[in-house]
Amino acid sequence: MRLEGDRLKDIIGLIEPIKDPEIGISIVKLRMVESIEEEDGKIKVNVKLTVPGCPLSSTIEKDVKKALKEKGYNDVEVNFGFMSKKELEDIKEVVRKEQIQMPQSIERYEKKSIRRIIAVYSAKGGVGKSTIVKLLAETANSMNYKTGILDCDISGPSITSLFNLKERAYADEDGKITPIIKEGIKIMAVDMLTDVEAIIWRGPLVSSAIKQMYNDTNWGNLDILFLDLPPGTSDAPITVFQSIPVDATVVVTTPQELSNLIGKKTIVVAKSLNIPVIGVIENMSYFVCKHCGGKNEIGNKNTKLDLPILAKLPFFNDLNAEKEESINQLKIAVGKIVNG
Ligand SMILES: Nc1ncnc2c1ncn2[C@@H]1O[C@H](COP(=O)(O)OP(=O)(O)O)[C@@H](O)[C@H]1O
Ligand SMILES: [Mg+2]
Scanning 88, 150, 323, 338, which has its CA 20 to 30 A from the CA of 102? Predict the structure, then answer.
């Protein structure tokens, strides 16, 4: 039951002093407390975050539980949702009134004229994310979808070399960058802009580079933009999810990875970001015997997954020569990715 009246006031009063750890203003003032319910003695506090999957939500949860426990509310549950664009605009207004500098992560960029933004993610490097981004983009393009790729792996970009792309991209007078078109795909990557090897990227620089590349590129109309994410659970992939309006994630794993901890971590992180996970692409899943043409499965196939498998790709001896054989699977995967 939704609380009202004095009891609501009482609880709101206890929560009032709790500040959003990032913005430094009371979560009540920021209208982040959506509602408070009581059910069989349990108090449920429903909080709206400024960004989906905000890594600071656990701090808010801890603070709310602590404040209520001190006044004898022992059974407390904190649920999180996130704010709509309109609500975000409203809180920006509150922040402006308080004359506090807006923290960067509240800036969520516009969707522009891009229909679907899909992040391709894994917690581990070397499982084939970039390879798969290329295959998915080529497939989408062959299906007549207007396709783009943003290489978000600032410290280890690989899209330009996968596409054998030598051209540089430049900003025009308005600071907008025109992406390079290769095989009909609009591509933007940090090594098209600078001599990356000369720069050692620090965390904050990585985040701002990703945001800028997304926001300052003239993508035009796109049906689908694939984001090649850096591996890991660090700032960089989190930045992508917080500032770029990602519609959904595709997870890449190998059978070996799936059975171990990091493979599971990939799935947990992807799910905790509050962005739909469309499914998993299992890479290097089997190899085809050169002599008899038989299919040999690789790794332990007993790992249960509660996500759909979008495609199972073989270990390619020669990607360009062999990718045709996987084209049907890739087309089905792209169909699901484009249509959500
Ligand atoms: N299905 C595959 N068969 C054979 N080699 C692959 C396959 N997928 C990726 N690779 C190779 O594995 C290495 C890592 O792939 P990459 O796409 O760069 O991974 P990530 O982006 O996850 O770090 C590259 O050398 C790539 O050519
Ligand atoms: Mg990569």
Answer: 150
Q: Counting atoms of ligand 1 from 1, which one is nearest the CA of 284?
A: 1
Domain 5-105 has CATH 3.30.300.130: yes
Top CATH class, 114-339? alpha beta
Ligand 1 within 6 A of CB of 326: no
Prediction pTM value: 0.71
How far away, in angstroms, is 339 Cα from ligand 1 center? 26
Q: Whose CA is nearest to atom 10 of ligand 1?
A: 128
Question: What is the CA(331)–ligand 2 centre distance, in A?
Answer: 22
Atom of ligand 1 nearest to the CA of 316: 3
Q: Does the pLDDT value for residue 53 go beyond 80? A: no
Give the pLDDT confidence of 150-209 residue by residue, as tens digits. Answer: 999 888 899 999 999 998 888 787 778 899 999 999 999 988 876 555 455 555 667 778
The first and second tokens of residue 315, run together, are 């270990």
Rounded Cα gap, residues 21 and 10, in angstroms:
23
Hey, where are the domains in the chain? 5-105, 114-339
Residue written as token pair 């089997």: 286
